[in-house]
Amino acid sequence: MKLLYKTYLTILLVMMVSVAFSQEKSIIDQLDEIAIVDQKVMMPMRDGVRLATDIYRPKGEGKFPIVFSRTPYNFNTWGNGEMNTRTMQTALSWVEKGYAYVVQNERGRYFSEGDWDILGVPLTDGNDAFEWMSKQSWSNGKVGLLGCSSTAEWQMAVASLDHPALAALVPQGYGAGVGRVGEFNEQGNWYRGGAGQMLFTNWLYSVQHDPMAPKLPKDITQKDLLRLQRFYDMSPEYPRIDSKEALSHLPIQDIIKNQNGPMGIYEEMITRKPNDTKWFEGGLYHDDMPFDKPSFWFVSWFDVSAGPNIALFNHARENAVSQMARDNQYLVIAPVLHCSYTRATENTMVGDLNVGDARLNYDEIITAWFDVWLKGEKSEVLEKMPRVQYYTMGSNKWQTSDVWPPADAVMTTMYLDSEGKANTLNGDGKLTAKKPRKDNPDTFKYDPMNPVTSYGGNVCCTGNAIDGGGGSKDQSEIEKRDDILVYTSDVLEEGIEVSGFIESYLYLSSDAKDTDVTIKLIDVYPDGKAYNLDETIQRVRYRDGYDKEVWMEDGEVYEVKMTPMSTSNYFDKGHRIRIEVSSSNFPRFDRNMNTGGNTYDETEGVIATNSIHHGGKNLSRIVLPIVK
């Protein structure tokens, strides 16, 4: 009898849970109660092109502020015969807060008309969208921009046009929108130090639309689009590829073609050099463009673009047109991968490194930001908000500052030194506060057919091409390669916080016409594990600027100033500070074939004999922002 009673009780509980679950309202029902949903609105641009737009706005007669996301990604409600609710969930959360949520595809993407050009979408599309939205009867005339990665990269350049309806920005992981800012000349993350970042080669394989792909009739109606979106989402289905194998193909310009991938903008963009005029014609923000909008910037330490992203925050704060805008630039730097802010947990793993509880209430922060700038409300959250919130790894805590780098960071020089045998982690390379008097150069062979493989790192969008994925990984096994020079400090007798931009100056000689120099900043734990923090590269032909190519001569020693690295890390007592120097970090960056050729159309390279000098007048060094 007891057993029968327990069985009955179990069945009853299951039935109750099932009934409760069935009574939960669907996202459609929840939206229907509070929102007017208007999908596949074809918003007109000045040249007649129409952009597919979904609008979710509160019911009622009021006028509402607009949170606007424009994206190259697919937000169609249906895909593969099933309903996708992610966009609707986001829309519901904003409508519940009293906002209209508008999401739109860039021209040439999915149901939007026109031709797509990554990083080259006309800025006027943004202005035309602001104009149209601000004039709707349900709009209060204020628009705020929200998005991460490619949904954020267009925000800064369009803000330079200063449309009056654009009230505030929230760009996250926006490096692909940065062209030239301060010491960074990235042209939308296409370059780092003049070397190609291969993320776009892999990303464009699965993103660019082939110009021969079918298109809908130009005059198609909203009624027809609403019907068709249940059966078609206009999304190409590219076969999966082995990204590691794909990116190894030469020449680089044929990588997508070699995978039978789509034709598109890649074949043209890969031929552009860092100072090509076309980089200055599209949707990139360059530091000679005006900026005058309140902005809340979100950056992550292990993103591909932490350095230029922070530099753009500093640029806007120092150079915005009005004092109002200069006083309303805010920054959050989290210890996560690209656009992974909300994935932080109580024990946040970034690669193989546990950086502790890196959670932050992003919803509260962003809502408060828009409440102030789009609704005109006061916010205690924003009034108490520090100008910069940054996460320090190692000590694993959020910290605040009024400026970046923190005002109490002191630039401190550490010099490379050795007896000429710094090759591998078992060599005699040292990182020391004392200037070495004698130059005992460290020499290695760089073979572009056998490059140093990327392991972890500050990456995104490379599929399985990067061993271990992104983030912080133990580099000690890779450091056994003879073509990696390793310089390590003594064991720290007390902890050191490094927060800010890390400068590097390396003195190089080579028997090649051109080559690359790479560097990594490493935190070495007492057990010998060596966790990478940031990395950079410099193509030596661009050492004197990106407007010209200057070749090396055998026997000459050249100073190479590296593009700055960035981090906030506490090197604990008992740890050591290390840097790695080499000439490749592949496929994070493309390979220099050492010939002085175009790189993108080369299939054969030459082995370079490269030497790093570090004594006398050739003081190779790094300069660390140590917080006192």
UniProtKB/TrEMBL annotation:
SUPFAM superfamilies: alpha/beta-Hydrolases, Galactose-binding domain-like
UniProt entry tagged with the keyword Hydrolase: yes
GO molecular function, one term: dipeptidyl-peptidase activity
Ranges where the record places region Disordered: 426-447
Record keywords: Hydrolase
Domain of life per record: Bacteria
Sequence ranges assigned to domain Xaa-Pro dipeptidyl-peptidase C-terminal in this UniProt record: 367-623
Gene3D superfamilies noted in UniProt: alpha-amino acid ester hydrolase ( Helical cap domain), alpha/beta hydrolase, Galactose-binding domain-like
PANTHER family in alphabetical order: COCE_NOND FAMILY, PUTATIVE (AFU_ORTHOLOGUE AFUA_7G00600)-RELATED, PEPTIDASE S9 PROLYL OLIGOPEPTIDASE
The protein's name: Xaa-Pro dipeptidyl-peptidase C-terminal domain-containing protein
Organism: Algoriphagus locisalis
